[in-house]
Design goal:
Chains: A mainly alpha (262), B mainly alpha (255), C alpha/beta (358)
Number of domains of chain C: 2
Largest interface: A-B, 77 and 81 residues
Distance between the termini of chain B: 18 Å
Shape of chain B: globular
Structural class of chain B: mainly alpha
Oligomer: heterotrimer
Shape of chain C: globular
Strand content of chain C: 5-15%
Number of strands of chain C: 10
Order of helices and strands of chain C: HEHHEHEHEEEHEHEHEEHHHHHHH
Number of helices of chain B: 11
Number of helices of chain C: 15
CATH architecture of chain B: Orthogonal Bundle
CATH architecture of the largest domain in chain C: 3-Layer(aba) Sandwich
CATH superfamily of the largest domain in chain C: Periplasmic binding protein-like II
CATH topology of the largest domain in chain C: D-Maltodextrin-Binding Protein, domain 2
């Protein structure tokens, strides 16, 4: 019953948004008579026909991006989680490196790319590393937030039971923080996809980002821009739904939310 | 003394990193020339000699970044409230928010350029989208992840849904809001830089980074602008941390 | 209450750990196969059938601008010289110079004016093949705007791609005594012509072989005013092939063979522009086939073999033109010193390549 209701709700929202887009597209083209109407907001049927005209090509490019985004995401998530644990274990380490983790995110890909290319000498490795580089930060910050939000009284209790550090982490801190970890993962997943799309544009010949840039700047074949954009957004959504599904498996309902969720 | 302990470790760590970088250790490890990664002395030298220009360009960038971060965070929180208040009806909204947020910035920025003609508005739109996403996800988690005994207590007092929201859920979401803001800072500033790559304007930190890094002998200037953006991000981050300390001193995570 | 939470969380945590482990293993496998795959496309090595592997970093997507390279590749000219050449397309955020100095590519394509800035910064690049003999960069205005020469740019909204592309315009403005920093309203132009079409800019940057051709699809020639950098005498040399000096000295034969096959590629493209355009379109799928054919024709007739030069001069490093680019780069502030021409170009490879063709 619940899934039916959420499904219905999703359907209503999506249809509402689509109707709004369709109306806006009509308004731009017919009422405002904007010469760039098709470039600003196209009719849905145009996007759909552009997609089915090149479905095989677009999907295979999407597959390429998904592969690199997925690998980069896993790498970034592992590194991010490790950093968060390290920072929780030592306040000194946290104070030392947290500001620099933030700084690391300020170096734009254009400045970073030559360094990563130089290090790995391979476009495909660089694609994974850059996706990981952008993923690790939200995972680290979210998980650290979780690790630090544990009720002090519980930790005191553990101390009074003479629990060692390993026990404290595996029995209290980590299980408590799992929902926070998932929050970070949920944010990071679409970002990893977005990063992989960005890296597609660097110097590759495939990937959905390549299609976007090619249709934006390659001249002519602009029709594929919209399906490519929507496809990349859908990959991002899919990645988040996947994490949400994983979360449902890994986190018990009692932990995740209060009764208000029912 | 306490303050010193807070500031000293990052400063020392930064000094060690900068020292190693200055000695060319990074260039050797990464096997890249100083043209690709200039030494800190060079970057800081250029930063100082171009201080006025950097200041002027920063104005173009900081205004939309700060406004976009605030508006985006508010928008994100507002959507989290709707979704939390109506879990089933709001679920579809959550999906929509995710879709919009999943549009890559390199596609969103040129699209916003087509939609709006004023560069400030164009940038603002991109930054708001980038900043709202992490806020929605975080705030939602804070609104929902409430200790059961608090809820039980409220129920035993026969409190209604809205009272639970006002007294338990919203206060409980504050720490998450700050996590969302912290990630939002990096997302918003990255969005600012990329949207300036595509902007019509020929000023701004993002514009200067892009074009200076492409011209071989202007690389150090590009890195000076990256430094400027980093300083700005740290300042924003510090403001958020200070606010966090003031506002949720009582919360477990800050005790 | 708490203990209940903890226990159930613990079991779930184990599940998560397992999932992560499996995922990590998968990632490990995935990335090792990945690196193995990319190693094949790595630096200059002798691969299968004794062919020497070479990687060229192009400047942009496969298009008529680079027809000679793609024709030499597709028609087997490189293979006949014993080379296995891979051409990597350029991107928005990556420079050929970086790719070459990182060793991802051995040979780079970029504007000579851009290579100069890296030489100025201390890189040991050397220009070995000047593909374009002039500047194909136009400034285009609508005829009814009355903008005809550089003198009319004052106070106008002028679009440029920047990133080093703007220095010809700075020289143009300086020629007419315009303070280009304050008296021209510069606009960052994207790679479409929308801003020009909807009047957001008065003057647009357009490559004679690309954007200008696209404009001619929409406007009559009489509806457009063109400011030609060559006619204004402010042109700087564009597309060239550059390598690292040390690499060139160590791989002299390979480089000469590569240049020879590239010259043959351009000659073939000049004789069969339609086929060359089709080849480029098939590889890059950029724009349309007609546009690629038109671009190939235009590039060859205006820049690669312009009037007054011959097929035997493709890629020739004309010292007078090179020197003019250096001088102008210095006077507009693009480079900080007058680089010695001997340190900037080396035409011995080209000379040997062209000699082998006769």
């Amino acid at each position: 019953m619940k899934t039916f209701k959420t499904g219905l709700s999703t359907g209503v929202w999506i249809c509402g948004a689509l109707a709004l887009i369709q109306f806006a597209a009509w308004f731009l083209a017919e009422v405002v008579r904007d010469p760039l109407a098709g470039k600003r907001l196209p009719y849905l049927q145009d996007v759909i026909s552009a997609f089915f005209g090149n479905a095989g090509y677009l999907l295979s490019q999407a597959g390429v991006t998904m592969r690199y985004a997925g690998l980069g995401f896993l790498l970034g998530a592992v590194v991010g989680a490790a950093l968060a644990l390290l920072m929780r274990a030592s306040g000194l380490v946290e104070r030392m490196i947290l500001p620099y983790l933030l700084l690391s995110q300020m170096i734009p890909i254009i400045g970073l790319a030559p360094i990563i290319f130089g290090l790995f000498k391979s476009l495909n490795a660089a694609r994974i590393i850059i996706a990981a580089y952008i993923t690790f930060f939200p995972v680290s910050v979210s998980l650290l937030g979780g690790l630090k939000s544990v009720d002090e009284s519980c930790i005191d209790l553990m101390h009074s039971c003479a629990a060692n550090a390993w026990q404290r982490y595996t029995k209290l801190l980590i299980p408590w923080s799992v929902p926070y970890l998932f929050t970070g993962l949920k944010i990071a997943a679409p970002v990893a996809v977005s990063a992989a799309v960005l890296v597609d544009t660097l110097s590759s010949r495939d990937g959905i980002g390549y299609v976007i840039v090619l249709t934006l700047y390659g001249g002519g074949t602009t029709g594929q821009f919209w399906p490519a954009l929507i496809l990349s957004a859908l990959i991002g959504l899919g990645s988040m739904l996947l994490i949400t599904a994983l979360e449902k498996i890994c986190v018990s309902p009692g932990m995740k939310s209060g009764k208000g969720d029912e | 003394m306490n303050k010193l302990q807070g500031i000293l470790p990052p400063l020392l760590f930064g000094a060690v990193l900068t020292g190693l970088w200055q000695l060319g250790v990074f260039n050797r490890i990464f096997n890249i020339s100083q043209l690709q990664l200039p030494l800190p002395s060079k970057i800081i030298g250029v930063f100082i000699s171009h201080l006025t220009a950097i200041g002027q360009n920063a104005v173009t960038t900081i205004a939309p970044a700060a406004v976009g971060l605030i508006l985006g965070a508010l928008l994100g929180y507002w959507m989290a409230l709707i979704i939390a208040a109506f879990p089933q009806g709001g679920y579809g909204l959550m999906i929509l928010v995710t879709i919009v947020n999943a549009i890559p910035i390199i596609a969103l920025a040129p699209l916003m350029n087509r939609w709006f003609t004023v560069p400030f508005i164009t940038k603002l739109a991109v930054i708001m989208v980038a900043a709202s996403g992490s806020m929605t996800v975080h705030a939602l988690q804070g609104l929902k992840n409430v200790a059961e005994e608090k809820l039980d207590l409220m129920h035993s007092c026969a409190a209604g849904k809205w009272e639970v929201f006002l007294r338990v859920r919203i206060p409980n979401s504050l720490p998450s809001v700050f996590s969302g803001l912290k990630i939002g800072v990096s997302a918003a500033l990255l969005a600012t830089i990329i949207s300036e790559f595509f902007s019509k304007e020929t000023s701004g930190i993002g514009y200067m980074i892009k074009h200076s890094l492409k011209v071989g002998n202007q690389r150090p200037l590009g890195w000076a602008y990256i430094l400027a953006m980093s300083l700005f991000s740290v300042a924003l981050y510090a403001v958020i941390c200070i606010l966090e300390r003031r506002l949720i001193r009582w919360h477990a995570s800050r005790r | 209450m708490k203990s209940k939470i903890r226990r159930s969380g613990q079991r779930k945590w184990a599940v998560l750990l397992e999932a992560l482990l499996v995922a990590g293993l998968l990632a490990g496998c995935g990335s090792t196969s990945q690196t193995a795959g990319s190693a094949e496309g790595g630096s200059a090595q002798t691969g299968e059938e004794g062919l020497t592997k070479l990687t060229v970093q192009s400047l942009w997507f496969a298009q008529g601008q680079f027809a000679g390279l793609y024709v030499a590749q597709e028609k087997g000219f490189y293979e006949e010289e014993g080379l296995d050449v891979e051409i990597i397309p350029g991107g928005t955020d990556v420079t050929s110079e970086d790719q070459v100095s990182n060793g991802i590519a051995q040979i780079g394509v970029d504007f000579y004016s851009s290579v100069l800035t890296y030489q100025d910064g201390g890189a040991d690049f050397i220009n070995v093949f000047q593909t374009f003999k002039n500047s194909p960069q136009y400034l285009v205005a609508k005829a009814d705007s009355g903008i005809k020469t550089g003198a009319d740019l004052k106070g106008k909204k002028v679009g440029s791609w920047f990133g080093g592309r703007e220095y010809e315009f700075y020289a143009l403005a300086a020629k007419y005594g315009i303070d280009y920093e304050n008296e021209i309203d510069w606009v960052q132009q994207d790679y479409t012509l929308d801003q020009f079409n909807n009047g957001e800019i008065d003057v647009a940057s357009a490559m004679s072989y690309n954007e200008y051709l696209l404009l001619l699809d929409q406007y009559k020639e009489s509806e457009l005013n063109v400011i030609d950098m060559n006619e204004e005498g402010v042109s700087m040399l564009e597309d060239c092939l550059f390598v690292q000096k040390e690499w060139a000295e160590e791989n002299k034969d390979t480089l000469v063979k590569f240049l020879r096959a590239t010259i043959r590629g351009w000659q073939y493209a000049a004789d069969h522009p339609d086929e060359a355009g089709q080849i480029v379109y098939r590889i890059g799928e950029s724009a349309t086939e007609e546009h690629q054919i038109a671009m190939t024709r235009k590039v060859i007739e205006t820049a690669v073999i312009p009037e007054g030069s011959s097929r035997e001069q493709i890629g020739e490093l004309d010292t007078a033109r090179i020197q003019r680019t250096i001088d102008q780069g210095f006077s507009t502030g693009l480079i900080s010193k007058k680089i010695d021409i001997e340190d900037s170009i080396d035409d011995s490879y080209w000379k040997e390549a062209i000699a082998g063709l006769k």
